[in-house]
Amino acid sequence: MSGTAQVQAQSRAVAAIDDPILVVRDVHKHFGGIKASNGVDLEVGRREIAGLIGPNGSGKSTLFSLVAGTVAPDRGQIRFDGHDIAGRKAYTIARLGLARTFQIPALFDNMTVTENLLAAAAEGQWDGARQRADETLALLHLEAVAGNRASDLSGGQQKLLEFGRVIMRRASLILLDEVTAGVHPNIRKIILEAIARLRKEGTSFFVIEHDMEMVRNVCDRIIVMDSGRVVTSGTFDDIVRNSEVMQTYLGRPQ
Ligand SMILES: Nc1ncnc2c1ncn2[C@@H]1O[C@H](COP(=O)(O)OP(=O)(O)OP(=O)(O)O)[C@@H](O)[C@H]1O
Ligand SMILES: [Mg+2]
User: Fold this and answer.
1) Measured in angstroms, how far is the CA atom of residue 129 from the centroid of ligand 2?
2) Separation of 130 CA from ligand 2 center, angstroms?
């Protein structure tokens, strides 16, 4: 597919989403000479689980930082749940109902698992926080380590806790940055079940993933980035049928 045809295919896919919770239009972010976002256009539907894939350095995590407000765009529009959020402060965007995990978990190392969950609630909605912490511990099978310091958890448990902190915020859109990377299949299963349960309750998800099996099993729709741009989007079958995309994605070291 030519570049123009890909852009047209993307436009059609974008137009098909009636009720987007997130709309990104022509977003640019340069770091010195690096165009981490070079005109990103995409949408995420309400109650959708949208996947974001692309080679290392293609701008996926940067896009999450732009949406979550930890990095400000040079230009472009970002609308979340009807609000213009481009360049707004991260805590303002979080209060509107958007939450993200970091590729490297950002936990309070010296606090316990439960305290980490409660701290996340304190940053957002405190009502019913203690009960929600207990429910989250159960949902993520973390009860046995509830009183342990975050720094004493295994890498997989730290990923679970990072996800738990996001759950505590009761967000309407959750951005997950490689939340299952490097974790044991048992923990991966716990994460997938939690995603399914939250989606049933109305949460939308935007997930960065390198594991194509996970992408196939979890995502309703997949958005492909390369060199700071969206190159196409579609169902898993659409994407794997697109040999140019597969070449772009699989033809580079992951
Ligand atoms: N704060 C920053 N300062 C300078 N350059 C940055 C910064 N953040 C990202 N970059 C650069 O922007 C580009 C995109 O990085 P990003 O982390 O968004 O990629 P990614 O698609 O998430 O990659 P990966 O799959 O390896 O996680 C890279 O070249 C990276 O080095
Ligand atoms: Mg990344």
Assistant:
1) 30
2) 32
Any idea where the domains of the chain sit in the sequence? 1-97+206-254
CA distances (Å), origin 5, targets 1, 55, 141, 167: 6, 21, 46, 39
Alpha carbon separation from 119 to 17, 26, 163, 164 (Å, rounded): 35, 35, 13, 11
* Crossing angle (nearest 10°) for helices 113-123 and 129-139: 130
Cβ–ligand 1 distance for 58 under 6 Å, the answer yes
How do residues 4-28 score in pLDDT, each as one tens digit? 444 444 444 444 578 899 999 999 9
Class of domain 1-97+206-254: alpha beta
Cβ neighbours of residue 138 closer than 8 Å, sequence gap 6 or more = none
Q: What is the mean pLDDT of the chain?
A: 89
Strands 75-80, 20-31: pairing is antiparallel
Give 102-159 pLDDT, tens digit per residue: 877 789 999 999 999 999 988 777 889 999 999 999 999 999 999 999 999 999 999 9
By alpha-carbon position, which residue is closest to atom 5 of ligand 1? 31
